[in-house]
Amino acid sequence: MSIFYLKENERVVVFRYGHIHKLAGPGLVILFPIIDKGLKINMDEHIPGWQGLSEDILLQQIERLIIDDELFFE
Q1: CA torsion 24→7→61→15, rounded to 10°?
Q2: At a CB cut-off of 8 Å and minimum separation 6, what does 9 contact?
Q3: Reduced to 3 states, what is the DSSP secondary structure of residue 34?
């Protein structure tokens, strides 16, 4: 079991079976091995103005960053 403690400006993109499942954080986030993988993101660095975005738009921007290989395996 993986446990993350995230600050206010951090989130974890949870991949379940290789697909984006949800955006989790701040606080404690628990991931289950084999099923889940997590990618920790500092929102202030990668997505300026993220506080004013809805979760749907935020997930779209994060997907765009992951597809463009700007965040993955950083």
Answers
A1: -30
A2: 26, 42, 43, 44
A3: coil
In the structure encoding, which two tokens stand for residue 35, read together? Answer: 């099923």
The residues with which 5 forms a beta bridge, in sequence order, are: 28
How do residues 16-37 score in pLDDT, each as one tens digit?
Answer: 988 888 889 899 999 998 899 8
Burial of 43 (0-12, 13-18, 19+ CB in 10 A): buried
Torsion on CA atoms 7, 64, 72, 14, rounded to nearest 10: 50
- pTM confidence score: 0.76
- Strand, helix or coil for residue 33: coil
